[in-house]
Specification:
Distance between the termini: 62 Å
Organism: Niastella vici
Bound molecules: pyridoxal-5'-phosphate
InterPro entries: Aminotrans_V_dom, Aminotrans_V_PyrdxlP_BS, PyrdxlP-dep_Trfase, PyrdxlP-dep_Trfase_major, PyrdxlP-dep_Trfase_small
Number of domains: 2
Protein name: Aminotransferase V
GO molecular function: transaminase activity
Radius of gyration: 22 Å
Order of helices and strands: HEHHHEHEHEHEHEHEEHEEHHEEHEEHEH
CATH class of the largest domain: Alpha Beta
CATH topology of the largest domain: Aspartate Aminotransferase, domain 2
Helix content: 40-55%
CATH architecture of the largest domain: 3-Layer(aba) Sandwich
Family: Belongs to the class-V pyridoxal-phosphate-dependent aminotransferase family.
Number of helices: 15
Shape: globular
């Protein structure tokens, strides 16, 4: 499929629709992206209507539009609307899926070196509670997830493969579809954390072959905070036990019994913030209108340029490794802690974030990393912004080296 690259004017037009881009260089899209104005305005308008007319009354008025959110999300990931549950964040989605499985002592769960902390905690908790065995597949020497190592780790006790598509504190992409192929061939349930990949790159649950997928709204999807969703493949819905109930979990209830609703909305709470639901819907619609393949191409091009320029700066080490890299750029500046780099950039209205060891604990421990700088680009960032950030970083690095030299001379 031919991908139409962005023209400069289109980027400028998109930036004009995002108030936060006006006087700030936002490179913390892996934390929370700047939302488009339409997302914010939709939520503010909805909240105002609620205040004027009542929450239930306004919800009833927008019922059909609210329900459309599931269909749009399904379109985004090539699923069916009845396979989507709206939840508060990616950790909630992952927890509902993971803890819905019936673990027995000795069941094996395979994960990767790049797994996110919330998920690792879920695995460790199940190890304590049920006696599951955690098998972590380390990256190969080039920093790639190893499909042969995954295949070798599978036994007849393997119950689940749970991996993260794009890690929190590294720039590589895991081969989600190749992992799915192994899962399907061996008839193993596959749970994918697409928290950083949804909205950044095409995520197609049919092509990937995952059974469950966990996503947050605020990162590359540019949705509101406190939004997210869980995808559960139709055939898997009945196989997950329910962890909580409210009146909308069921299609029928009597004094003696109940019937659980057929679709994935059984995994949702009824009570959620409808303004946030509409905000997420607008964000998904916005991304779909632009085109995810185009977004992905631009993010990769910007990140490539960024890494190239960073590597040319004396004192900077870029940590990202692997065959396929994404918009998350991680690096260290010699002689200065990442927190100080972030603070110095913040003074210049540049947002970056810190990657702590615990957030991607297997990987960071193996690499001996803690407190690295994470600068994550989105399609609305510009080459000029990246150039400015690199100039600032060069100045920071030079300043540190001069200080070191002066100390030596004293
Ligand atoms: C890879 C990955 N998975 C999961 C999460 C958790 O997402 P949430 O905070 O929405 O629960 C994060 C958050 O940074 C993440 O980077």
């Amino acid at each position: 499929m031919e991908i139409t690259p962005f023209k400069k004017e289109e980027i400028q037009a998109l930036r004009a629709e995002t108030i936060g881009t006006a006087d700030r260089i936002h490179l913390n899209n892996a934390g929370a992206s700047l939302p488009p104005d339409i997302v914010v305005n939709t939520m503010v308008d909805f909240l105002r209507e609620e205040a004027l007319y009542g929450g239930y009354e306004v919800e009833a008025k927008y019922r059909a539009q609210l329900d459309h959110t599931h269909a749009l999300i399904a379109q985004l990931i090539n699923a069916h609307a009845d396979e989507i549950a709206l939840v508060e964040n990616a950790s909630a989605a992952w927890d509902i899926a993971f803890n819905g499985l019936n673990f027995q002592p000795g069941d094996e769960v395979i994960t990767s070196e790049m797994e996110y902390v919330s998920n690792v905690l879920g695995l460790l908790n199940a190890q304590k509670l049920y006696g599951i065995v955690i098998k972590m597949v380390p990256n190969d020497d080039e920093g790639n997830f190893s499909i042969p190592a995954l295949a070798a780790a599978i036994t007849d006790r393997t119950k689940l493969i749970a991996v993260t598509h794009i890690p929190s504190t590294a720039g590589n992409v895991l081969p989600a579809a190749a992992i799915g192929e192994v899962a399907r061939k061996n008839n193993i349930v596959y749970l994918l954390d697409a928290c950083q990949s949804a909205g950044q790159m095409p995520v197609d649950v049919q092509a990937i072959g995952c059974d469950m997928l966990a996503v947050t709204g605020r990162k590359y999807l540019r949705g509101p905070r406190g939004s997210g969703f869980l995808y559960v493949r139709r055939q898997m819905i009945d196989k997950l036990k329910l962890l909580f109930f409210d009146g909308r979990t069921v299609s029928h209830v009597s004094e003696q019994d109940f019937v659980v609703r057929a679709d994935a909305r059984r995994f949702e709470w009824y009570e959620k913030n409808p303004a946030v639901t509409l905000g997420l819907q607008k964000a998904v619609e916005y991304a779909l209108n632009i085109g995810i393949a185009r977004i992905w191409q631009r993010i990769q091009q910007l990140a490539f340029l960024f890494r190239q320029w960073l590597q040319a700066v004396e004192g900077i080490t870029v940590h990202d490794q692997g065959d396929e890299l994404c918009g998350i750029v991680t690096f260290s500046v010699a002689g200065i802690p990442a927190t100080e780099v972030r603070a110095k950039l913040a003074v210049k209205n540049i947002n970056v974030h810190i990657g702590l060891a615990k957030s991607t604990i297997y990987y960071m421990n193996r690499k001996g990393l803690d407190g690295i700088v994470r600068a994550s680009v989105h399609y609305y960032n510009t080459e000029e912004e990246i150039e400015i950030v690199c100039q600032e970083l060069r100045a920071i690095s030079n300043q540190v080296r001069i200080q070191v030299m002066q100390t030596k001379l004293r």
